[in-house]
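sorry for the late reply, my laptop died twice this morning and i had to redo everyting from scratch. anyway the thing you sent over, i finally got around to it. pasting the sequence first so we're on the same page, its 303 residues, then the predicted structure underneath. double check i copied it right bc i was rushing
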Amino acid sequence: MSRRYTATHAPRLRSIHLVTLAFLIAPPLSFAGEDDMISGNDGCGCRRVDFVVSSSTSTSSDSSSGDMTTSTDVTTSDDETASGGSSTTSTGSTTDLTTTTGLDTEPLSSTSPSTDTDTTTGAPIEVRRVFLSSESYHGDLDPMDGDPLGLELADQHCQSLAEDVGLGGVYMAWLSDSSVGPAERFGMDDFAGELRLVDETIVAIGWDELTTGPLRHAITVTETEERLGFDALPAVVVVWTNTDTAGHSAGSINCTDWSADTIDAPGRLGRAKDGLTTAEWTLDMWDGLCGNIGHLYCVQVFE
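ok and here's the structure:
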């Protein structure tokens, strides 16, 4: 018998973990930014990190050719890290987290190839990505005007999140309605390559390992490479799934085929937590209430 989370009805807002920073290379420039807003069924915790971005520009000319060369150096420093400090988050016990802040100048797709090479045999390895959505959704998946509903909307969310950070390929949600699940929807039965997080950590080798388990690593990294599901963060990072370990539908407890956002309707959940690689990653013992919010697992199904 499944049990339900009892959490306060969440406001109808999407929780967005991605923080967008705009920089003009013109010295001096400094500002403070928000970092790591984590949310799940039971609310969110926020941590502020102040950092400074500075730039310097130098210009030189080649007297023989008349060409002028301009170079710009950009440096960033995290005030908290630079001072040798650490932040502490309490969830019943104390954990030290050293914060680092970096700027990616290349899209993720440039470091996320669709193939890799076996270092032993030299044979090519097909690589596909899997990530935990940085956004959270109510049980109806928060449709906007003109959006599709149900599984199609979930797939659309995954595809949009991937494209926003430059991940190539076609992405679908690890999500089932009352009749079909990823096993029927993905067409990955013959996939024998590696499923990796966006930080290159291997989650599973081939569809068979993904659907028989245990996973090699929990799916706890978002498309933006934010790491969720650790002890210092909210104890439960819930994920809408209604999907068993074999990738099939777990039944009809699915927020009315992902169309309901009421507090009295339930939906089956998985749980994203560091080290949790057994069946609970996709089908936990608890049900969620559709008026609350949960993440999605997103899987690259085609290059």
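The helical segments are 79-82, 151-164, 182-185, 206-212, 255-258.
thats about all i looked at so far, will dig more tmrw
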